[in-house]
Specification:
With 789 residues, this protein is of the alpha+beta class. Among the domains are: 98 residues, PH-domain like (Roll); 178 residues, no CATH class; 90 residues, no CATH class. It contains 37 helices and seven strands. Strands 4-3-2-1-7-6-5 form a seven-stranded antiparallel sheet, sandwiched between helices. Strand 6 and strand 7 form a beta hairpin. The longest helix is centred in the last third of the chain and has 39 residues.
């Protein structure tokens, strides 16, 4: 058998009963030694790789659908389809299949599918040994026909037999003729039977029957039959809707009659599936899988035919951007493009890629830039939907277009600024369109989807562009609604307490919340660019004005923005917050909230708890120094006491380090004099202290000898450096152990040194050995009065 090559697409049916495109190639039928039989081979047209190798089994049921499709199953859950570019190619391969199986090519199905076990087939052998015998197509036999159609639905084999019988006798058209008679006679009983019959025939799930039922001369009668549901008191008026209400609008005349017919057919079949037929039960959910496939392949064909007609699409975009085009006409054009994009979602990724590239080449983005700025709400809404398709498909394509726009034009006409302004000016009280646009903006500025770009500099270039040309447009409402009153005395003192949020209505609050959500995203993902912008614009101060809003959700958005900044643990941000005293509005909000246990209270406390747990020293010092008096009364959480504890620990450490590096002989003398002065005031405890001093002298001497033996090498070098830093006039310093020498030179009292030194060792396990010894030396004079009082 000679090879026959035809261009095809290979499809497989996935678990969701949707067709997946496996690629485009050329099909041939040839003998394959390994499979020992004639097989269908499809080789990819791109690289010649093997897309499909399927032996034509004598027992496999092949179906021919819509003149250009061949569908079959190779396993229980593995369905395949070949979609041919030309009918001639499909006919030729179909003849080869029928030749191998010994079947008549005039049939549209080569086998009766065997879906049941041998036992079930044996039980039904009497019923299935011949075609189902249909009653004569007469008014008096409608009830019998309806019962027959309903009874076979539970048996796959009998469904096949009934489908063949309906096809072979031209029975469908006879039934539809009876429908017209019953409707003329207003025979409700007959019409109810016809409803059951037509519904049952649809549930046979056979493409060959669909071809007949959905043809131009039959489909409206099929819809008519489905109007007379016995469960309804009055029939539905589906035909009236399809013929009078639903208008087919040709924005540009479609000259291809086959394309026009395909569009009409697809709309009506989709209407039957979505509107007329009841939602199938669990037991019926697979009955309409072929109907879904029928619609799917129709949509693929429509998109392909339109995409190939460059003259048609060129005219669409020319009229869309023409200033002379009437508003009503432009609205129809935008709606057409939107519907066109919606149809494209049925395409597989590689086909969708080609589809959107075609639109990009035709100028979809410049056209959107024009129509999104128009006053017509319907046009803007449809344009937003089209823009969302483009962004979801390829953010990089949109970014590339935006950066190529001429920079000499006004910033307002840049596409992203047009999108931002539409978001800001959304008239919907619930801001539905603004929420959608905010999501699209976030996708465009998300560095995560820039990483895989072939253009390695895309991230840097686009973010620089965005912050230079677009960020001021995004933040304009925020800055306008948090404007400072320059004449306010309080504001001159750095307070943000009295700044008004004006207007503080719900819609404005929602818009500001959306903007803050986007800015918070920038803080998390843009680091350098957003940091520079915040510092230059003093943006955090303006955002924190919103803590005064009567809308708690907006105050929480402002707090979340600050929380993200602090969460970065960036000292540049921390210094900015400290310098601007930017905790004040947060603490004011906490105090104004009072004892109410709500989300605002919890969120503010979580902010301070984070600072405490992460031990952000600069912020802890700022908070305790400036606000602890206002916060110390809050005792239902230990957060603020914990901050105070962290603050004091750090203060002690800093004091110790300062003393260690700056101590000289004069300071030692002053400490000694201070000690003796204290000792004169504390004679009562002298006897007890004397005993403790004796005990301590023994234990401390042994401890220091062991310590010197273990650390002589490493500490010696360090201590040499420290000894050099102390003036040579001090006789207490030696090159080997400055700390020990200092301790020996001063006549240390027993009691305070023992207790203070031991506490110091426990409190600061992370200090080095020499630091521990220094603590003994420097803490004793300071803590002596507290212990002896």
């Amino acid at each position: 058998m000679s090879d026959t090559r035809r261009r095809v697409k290979v499809y497989t049916l996935n678990e969701d009963r949707q067709w997946d495109d496996r690629g485009t190639g050329h099909v041939s039928s040839t003998f394959v030694e390994r499979l020992k039989g004639i097989s269908l081979l499809v080789r990819a047209e791109s690289d010649g790789s093997l897309l499909l190798e399927s032996k034509i089994s004598p027992n496999t049921a092949y179906q021919k659908q819509q003149d250009t499709l061949i569908v079959w199953s190779e396993a229980d859950n593995y369905d395949l389809a070949l979609s041919f570019q030309e009918k001639a190619g499909c006919d030729e391969i179909w003849e080869k299949i029928c030749q191998v199986q010994g079947k008549d090519p005039a049939l549209d199905i080569t086998q009766d599918p065997i879906d049941e076990s041998e036992e079930e087939r044996f039980e039904e052998i009497q019923e299935t040994s011949h075609l189902v015998e249909l009653p004569p197509c007469e008014l008096s036999r409608l009830e019998e026909i309806a019962d027959l159609v309903t009874s076979v639905l539970s048996s796959p084999i009998r469904r096949e037999k009934l489908a063949l019988a309906l096809m072979s006798e031209g029975y469908i058209k006879k039934l539809l003729g009876l429908f017209r008679v019953c409707e003329d006679l207003d025979n409700r009983e007959g019409l109810h039977h016809l409803y059951e019959i037509v519904r049952g025939v649809l549930f046979l799930n056979k493409a060959a029957l669909f071809e007949v039922m959905f043809s131009d001369d039959c489909i409206m009668d099929v819809v008519g039959c489905l109007e007379y549901d016995p469960a309804l008191v009055q029939p539905k008026r589906h035909r009236e809707f399809l013929t009078k209400t639903a208008k087919f609008k040709e924005v540009i005349p479609i000259t291809d009659s086959e394309l026009r017919q395909k569009i009409h057919q697809t709309y009506r079949v989709q209407y039957i599936q979505d509107i007329i037929l009841p939602t199938p039960s669990v037991f019926e959910e697979n009955f309409l899988s072929t109907l879904t496939s029928f619609i799917f392949f129709n949509k693929v064909e429509i998109v392909s035919m339109l995409q190939e007609d460059e003259k048609f699409l060129t005219e669409v975009f020319a009229q869309l951007t023409d200033e002379a085009t009437e508003d009503s006409k432009r609205r129809e054009l935008v709606n057409f493009v939107k519907e066109f994009c919606a149809f494209s979602q049925t395409l597989q990724p590689q086909n969708r890629d080609a589809f959107f590239k075609t639109l990009a080449n035709l100028g979809i983005l410049p056209a959107l830039e024009i129509v999104m700025g128009m006053d017509d709400l319907q046009v803007r809404a449809a344009a937003t939907d089209i823009f969302s398709y483009l962004v979801e498909f390829s953010p990089s394509m949109v970014r590339e277009f935006v950066m190529q726009e001429p920079q000499q034009t006004d910033d307002d006409v840049l596409l992203i600024n047009v999108v931002i302004k539409q978001m800001i000016c959304d008239s919907d009280p619930e801001l539905g369109g603004a929420v959608q646009l905010m999501g699209l903006l976030r996708t465009l500025i998300d560095p995560e989807n820039m990483l895989a770009s072939t253009n390695k500099t895309e991230k840097t270039e686009f973010l620089s562009f965005f912050y230079k040309y677009c960020m001021h447009v995004l933040t304009a409402p925020l800055l306008a609604n948090t404007a400072h009153d320059k004449s306010s005395k309080d504001l001159q003192e750095g307070s943000t307490k009295i700044n008004p949020v004006c207007p503080d209505n719900f819609q404005t609050a929602q818009l500001l919340a959306l903007i803050l959500e986007l800015l918070t995203f920038c803080v998390e993902h843009h680091t350098y660019h957003i940091k520079t912008y915040i510092m230059n614009k003093d943006l955090l101060r303006r955002v924190l004005v919103l803590m005064n809003s009567k809308h708690t959700f907006l105050a929480l958005c402002a707090l979340r923005f600050m929380r993200r900044i602090i969460g970065l643990k960036d000292e540049y941000y921390n210094r900015y917050i400290i310098k601007g005293n930017l905790f004040e509005p947060v603490i004011n909000a906490l105090l104004d909230n009072g004892t109410r246990y709500n989300l605002l209270n919890s969120a503010i406390i979580e902010l301070f708890e984070f600072i405490k747990v992460e031990d952000i020293k600069s912020l802890i010092a700022h908070i305790v120094d400036n606000f602890y008096k206002a916060l110390e009364s809050i005792e239902y959480v230990q957060t603020f006491k914990g901050l105070k504890g962290r603050y004091e620990q750090e203060k002690d450490r800093q004091s110790q380090r300062l003393n260690r590096y700056r101590r000289d002989a004069r300071s030692l003398d002053e400490d000694e004099e201070l000690w003796f002065n204290d000792d004169d005031d504390d004679d009562d405890g002298e006897a007890v202290e004397k005993r403790m001093e004796d005990d301590f002298s023994d234990s401390y001497g042994k401890y220091m000898e062991a310590k010197k033996g273990a650390a002589n090498g490493a500490n010696g070098a360090n201590n040499n450096g420290k000894a050099a830093a102390i003036p040579p006039a001090s006789p207490a310093v030696t090159p080997n152990n400055s700390s020990t020498s200092s301790v020996k030179t001063v006549a240390l009292p027993a009691t305070p040194v023992v207790k203070t030194a031991l506490v110091g060792l426990v409190d600061y396990p992370d200090d080095e050995d020499e630091e521990e010894e220094d603590e003994e030396e420097e803490q004793s004079p300071r803590k002596r009065p507290r212990l002896s009082s």
